[in-house]
Amino acid sequence: GRRAPAPPRLPAAAAELATPAALLRWADAGGDGEFPPLLATQDLKVGQELLSEVPLAWQPEQKSRLSRCAGCCLEVAEAALACRDCGQAVWCASCAGQPCRMCPELKITSGRVGAHTLLVLDLVRRHFAGELPEGALVAAARAGGVRPHHRKIAESVQKVGHWCSAVRWSDEEAAELVAAIEPGMLATSSAIGFFPRLARLRLASAARADRWPLAAAALKDNLRLDMRPTSALGFALVTTLSRPVRRGAAVRLPGAPPGCGTA
């Protein structure tokens, strides 16, 4: 079948931590495969930056497709180069010449498919093509398993995939991948992205205090998420401390359902 084009090359430091990884450590494993909490290895101060991450994959929201570059998500001028086939993607001068990754889907649907569906389809397709980095997705079982809303999302993804003859996987495999992808998704007003480290941080934040007593020290949220543009990409996720955290205590994100957050 048709192989998806390679994703745009990200900056070399895209996946690196902004601060030393020694600031956090995993609690001892356990809990039937669930994620343990992340613990501070030293006293942490309000405003201290813990993680910085650009999305592994992203899609512009429908309203932003003609104002955000399909390669870097930075704002483009009105005279930006548009895709000749679908007319639903534009590029800045620096990204001109890159392939239109979702061109068949955008063309066949006249751009009516939402960014969330396109992002999941892109990740599912790249997963089965062996294009995702090792460990990019957590196992569905470790993300809480497949739930009814995952199957509903998968139905939409499968429908769009079938229109383009791109489906080489089962409905159940699609639902499992939706469950694995969801914890790492975060939207801005102009785009939605998938962040592998965010997925793990969210799952660690949901660690149960009855299984990991150290998690009880973080019953209140102590982290915040912000989106900041970089020189190479329109948005990057930054995680900072919203409350002081003592050494050995767990860090915890706000309790929004995975995949539903907006920065």
Tell me about this structure.
With 263 residues, this protein is an alpha+beta fold. The chain contains 5 helices and 10 strands. The chain has helices spanning 103-108, 115-128, 148-163, 171-181, 196-205, and strands spanning 24-26, 38-40, 49-53, 57-60, 81-82, 90-91, 185-187, 191-194, 223-228, 236-241. It has a 3-stranded antiparallel beta sheet, with no helix packed on it. Strands 4-8-7 form a 3-stranded antiparallel beta sheet. Strands 1-2 form a two-stranded antiparallel ribbon. A hairpin with a 3-residue loop joins strand 7 and strand 8. Helix 2 crosses helix 3.
What keyword list fits this structure?
globular; 5 helices; three-stranded antiparallel beta sheet; disordered N terminus; disordered C terminus; alpha+beta; 263 residues
Instruction: Detail the poorly predicted runs.
Output: 1-20, 256-263
What's the tally of helices? 5
Distance between the termini: 37 Å
Q: What does the largest sheet look like?
A: 3 strands, antiparallel
- Tell me the strand percentage band: 5-15%
What structural category arises from helix and sheet content?
A: alpha+beta
Widest beta sheet: strand line-up: 3-10-9
> In which range does the helix fraction lie?
10-25%
Radius of gyration, CA atoms, in whole angstroms: 19 Å
User: What's the β-strand tally?
Assistant: 10
Instruction: Report mean pLDDT, rounded to a whole number.
Output: 82
- Looking at the structure, what is the overall shape? globular
Order of helices and strands: EEEEEEHHHHEEHEE
